[in-house]
Amino acid sequence: xxxxxxxxxxxxxxxxxxxxxxxxxxxxxxxxxxxxxxxxxxxxxxxxxxxxxxxxxxxxxxxxxxxxxxxxxxxxxxxxxxxxxxxxxxxxxxx
Length: 95
Known about the structure:
Structural class: alpha+beta
Number of helices: 3
Radius of gyration: 15 Å
Low-confidence stretches: none
Strand order of the largest sheet: 1-4-5
Order of helices and strands: HEEEEHEH
Shape: elongated
Strand content: 15-25%
Distance between the termini: 33 Å
């Protein structure tokens, strides 16, 4: 994983992680002196947090668990169009 481009973005990504809510289940270490943020997984971040409303451009992956496809569709439709949506599960999902 490469370094973050500059101090501004290290601070921005740090703020995204610190204000996201949810639980960091992997990573989260930050080395501002060398502009490095460990790849980080955050489970169940606050849907209104900056992490979930702005483009991330960094090694942070928010995970939103769900039980039904209908729940996912409701979440997606409640917000402006997402930049990306990834499905990880055992069932095939038809759009």
